[in-house]
Amino acid sequence: MLENKDQTRTPVSALGEFKLIDQLTDNFINKQPSTIKGIGDDAAVLGLEKQKMVLSTDLLIEGIHFDLSYMPLKHLGYKAVMVNLSDIYAMNAMATQVTVSIAVSNRFSLEALEELYSGIKTATDLYGIDLVGGDTSSSITGLVISVTAVGFATEEKIVYRNGAKANDLLVVSGDLGGAYLGFQVLEREKQVFEVNPNNQPDLEGYTYLIERQLKPEARKDVIKLLDDLDVKPTSMIDISDGLSSEILHLCKQSQVGCDLYENKIPLDPQVISICEEFKLDSTTVALNGGEDYELLFTISQDDYPKIKANPNLTVIGYIREKEAGCHLVTRADSKIELQARGWNALNDQE
Ligand code: ADP
Ligand code: MG
Predict the structure, then answer these.
(1) Nearest ligand by distance to the CA of 131
(2) CA distances from 291 to 195, 226, 282 (A)
(3) What is the pLDDT, as a whole number, of residue 350?
């Protein structure tokens, strides 16, 4: 995990907006050839010959999208960038730039914001992205972060949600359900801590899950891998809300149905054991948990030999004609209609 440091507290008001922006963005260095002008003018200038720009934006609000009682600011900065890069990769494009806008109340010191930006810096360095702008404002309470990510790809490369065809294979990267369970573990420890502040969080055995929640990785590696394997998905989406709702998005936009096989859904051993501990059904968690930031895509069956040996990719089902509908084929071989239930469904189960 990312380290945290404890230090003095300088009020943001002591600096003023321009000094603050300088202080936070000073050590970011541009790396991308498509960054023609970064921070410092009225607008950034970006471009590449013969490529299309891909652009996505996300808004993160304290108390709605994150809880700073267990989300260190450094991780929040990292995750805010990751969730946006994930959207760019889900178009089969390479992410190249981000802008970061923040609104902060006086609860946040310069040092706290430097923590946030050190997570942003780690993310941009690891993924080779340039920070090319943003905006800075005060807020009455709490923290708001908005990240916009930009990427480029040739027109032929870009993959949309609407290209899946009957008989295509449904494929997912990595494994599912971990981020939701990490959230459950952190929530439980927060309650234990609130009952008695001397209780130290007992997070041993949960490290993978907590890392999935606090430090998700966008699957740039999978986009590179598909390129190396010479596989262009017919449709693609990133998994931010949970497998079942993302499958339904792909199927709806492509006007197809699908069969998802319960016994094929990739689960980490820690997910299986913690589901037992929390008395949760691991399939429900994988289907509805969300925040895994894996890629879900469809490929033509002709491409199956190219991906079949790869440990990062799992075939989890087949695309069907629209009339067949969207179903989960259970371990007991019965068919259940897929529903986009999201986190609420998990809460109902408790
Ligand atoms: P303007 O008044 O035109 O909005 P600003 O003074 O807000 O300009 O911004 C000056 C420069 O600093 C611009 O390039 C802007 O994109 C960048 N910038 C402002 N806030 C941030 C931030 N929080 N993170 C990164 N860059 C920022
Ligand atoms: Mg501004």
Answers:
(1) 1
(2) 28, 22, 15
(3) 41
Question: Which of 49, 297, 273 lies closest to 171 in space, CA to CA?
Answer: 297
Chain position carrying tokens 């067949």: 324
132 in Cβ contact with 32 (< 8 Å): no
For residue 160, count CB atoms less than 10 angstroms from its CB and return exposed for 0-12, middle for 13-18, buried for 19 or more: middle
The answer to whether 24 and 117 have CB atoms below 8 angstroms apart is yes
Mean pLDDT value across the chain: 93
pTM: 0.92
pLDDT number for residue 200: 66
Whole-Å CA distances, 144 to 58, 117, 132, 240: 11, 14, 19, 19
Q: Which residues of the chain have pLDDT under 50?
A: 345, 349-350
Please list the alpha-helical segments (H only) found in 229-268: 243-254
**Cα separation, 58 vs 304, whole angstroms:** 34
Q: In the chain, what are the domains?
A: 12-153 (3.30.1330.10), 169-337 (3.90.650.10)
Q: How far apart are CA 256 and CA 234, in angstroms?
A: 12
Which residues, 6 or more positions from 58, have their beta carbon under 8 angstroms from its beta carbon?
80, 83, 84, 87, 146, 147
Nearest to 274 by CA among 342, 212, 205, 214: 205
Closest ligand 1 atom to 100 CA: 24
Residues with CB under 6 A from ligand 1: 21, 25, 39-42, 100-102, 131, 133-136
A 10 A CB-CB count for 106 gives 12
**What is the 59 CA–ligand 1 centroid distance (Å)?**
17
Atom 7 (ligand 1) nearest CA: 135
| Nearest alpha carbon, ligand 1 atom 11 | 40
The answer to whether 102 and 116 have CB atoms below 8 angstroms apart is yes
Closest-approaching ligand to the CA atom of 40: 1
Closest ligand (CA of 133): 1
Select from 12, 136, 138 the residue to mutate for testing ligand 1; criterion: most ligand atoms less than 8 Å from CB: 136
